[in-house]
């Protein structure tokens, strides 16, 4: 067996990028694992350092996840420094380049001479490979990546745009295995940017990767046959799904920082009953919720919770999912399952 056969799974969030390096034939528990600062955090740190030196910057590279790095761009401008951006990198700030320019960023086709370049991209295989090589670990031949992509929506709320995508997914059956085998649509520009850097990668949404990974927890098997709720409390976003037999029947998303235990508990109670509306969640500052065509028969009370901020919103630790004993790698295990499905391995990891 070729020892290079395997999967590098990279789950890219707001706070961290979680990395699993698994080789065929190895025990999952012995796989190489890393929890590192996310790409947007690293770019934000670089911008802060350059601001302290009073240096103008030009953003180059790909469209990537925003959040922390976008806030640092705003602070750079507020400090009276110049920020330039090449068009593709500028889409990190907003899908409407006119709005990017209205922020004070100069969108340009070529990087100005003498201006410090800040490289934007979500997937940095060179950096990951260098870290692995320090311990004699090669990169596997397979790559699976998760990012949250709102979709290209220059004139409309990207939250609404994203939930139209989820609505379509649910009305196509909500099949997690089928979704894992689909290439990302062209309007998912952040996913397409990952594919531009790594054309052979499998790319999934972070929420779907987390849901799929949580279902690999042994406690999920019996519960999911009859229906249950999976919740991922991420650093930036909280996603919940009503699941039966690896099919998503309904999906909910909000910003973690805007939730508290009481609000989330009430949202989930009404979500399970099919009573929570897209408009209510959206007007509360969240992304929304969507339901598939199948009636929500069952209580969906059995709940599995994962994500780095789960303790902020849940107290009952018996709910916490930890596939293969490692909660922080839940999304990576979901990516690995998806990658194995894509390679024709039809079984569920155990």
Task: Please tell me about this protein's structure.
With 350 residues, this protein is an alpha/beta fold. Among the domains are: 39-120, 3-Layer(aba) Sandwich (Rossmann fold); 218-321, Nucleotidyltransferase, domain 5 (2-Layer Sandwich). 36% of the residues lie in helices and 22% in strands. The strands form 3 sheets. A 5-stranded mixed beta sheet has the order 3-2-1-8-9, sandwiched between helices. Strands 13-12-11-10-14 form a 5-stranded mixed beta sheet, sandwiched between helices. α9 (206-214) crosses α14. The longest helix has 14 residues, at 39-52.
Provide a concise account of the structure shown.
The chain is globular, with a radius of gyration of 20 Å. The protein is α/β, with parallel strands linked by helices.
List keywords for this structure.
single chain, 350 residues, alpha/beta, Rossmann fold, Nucleotidyltransferase, domain 5, five-stranded mixed β-sheet, globular
Q: Estimate what percentage of residues fall within beta strands.
A: 15-25%
The CATH topology name of one domain reads Nucleotidyltransferase, domain 5
How many helices? The count is: 14
Provide the CATH top-level class of one domain. Answer: Alpha Beta
Count of β-strands: 14
Category from helices, strands and their pairing:
alpha/beta
Percent range of helical residues: 25-40%
Give the mean pLDDT.
93
Main sheet attributes: strand count, strand direction, barrel closure? 5 strands, mixed
Order of helices and strands: EEEHEHEHHEEHEHHHEHHEEEHHEEHH
User: Whole-Å distance between the termini?
Assistant: 21 Å
Pfam families: DUF1786
InterPro entries: DUF1786_pyruvate_format-lyase
């Amino acid at each position: 067996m070729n020892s290079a056969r395997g999967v590098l799974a990279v789950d890219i969030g707001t706070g961290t990028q979680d990395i699993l390096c698994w080789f065929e034939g190895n025990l999952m528990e012995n796989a190489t694992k890393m929890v590192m600062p996310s790409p947007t955090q690293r770019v934000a740190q670089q911008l802060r350092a350059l601001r302290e030196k009073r240096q103008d910057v030009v953003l180059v590279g790909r469209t990537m996840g925003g959040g922390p790095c976008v806030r640092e761009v705003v602070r750079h401008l507020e400090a009276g420094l110049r920020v330039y951006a090449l068009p593709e990198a500028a889409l990190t700030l907003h899908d409407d380049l006119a709005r990017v320019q209205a922020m004070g960023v100069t969108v340009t086709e070529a990087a100005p001479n003498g201006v410090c370049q800040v490289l934007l991209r979500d997937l940095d295989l060179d950096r990951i490979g260098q870290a692995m090589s320090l311990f004699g670990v090669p990169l596997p031949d397979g790559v699976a990546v998760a990012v949250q992509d709102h979709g290209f929506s220059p004139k409309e709320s990207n939250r609404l745009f994203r939930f139209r995508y989820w609505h379509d997914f649910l009305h196509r059956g909500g099949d997690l295995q089928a979704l894992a085998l689909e290439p990302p649509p062209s309007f998912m520009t952040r996913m397409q940017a990952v594919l531009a850097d790594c054309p052979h990668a499998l790319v999934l949404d972070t929420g779907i990767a987390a849901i799929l990974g949580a279902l690999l927890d042994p406690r999920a098997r019996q519960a999911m046959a009859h229906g249950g709720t999976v919740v991922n409390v991420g650093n930036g976003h909280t996603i919940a799904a009503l699941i039966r037999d690896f099919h998503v029947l309904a999906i909910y998303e909000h910003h973690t920082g805007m939730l508290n235990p009481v609000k989330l508990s009430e949202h989930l109670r009404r979500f399970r009953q099919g009573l929570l509306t897209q408009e209510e969640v959206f007007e509360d500052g969240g992304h929304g919720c969507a339901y598939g065509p199948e009636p929500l028969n069952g209580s969906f009370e059995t709940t599995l919770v994962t994500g780095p901020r789960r303790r902020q919103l849940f107290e009952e630790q018996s709910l916490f999912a930890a596939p293969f004993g490692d909660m922080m790698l839940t999304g990576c295990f979901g990516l690995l399952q998806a990658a194995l499905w894509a390679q024709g391995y039809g079984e569920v990891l155990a």
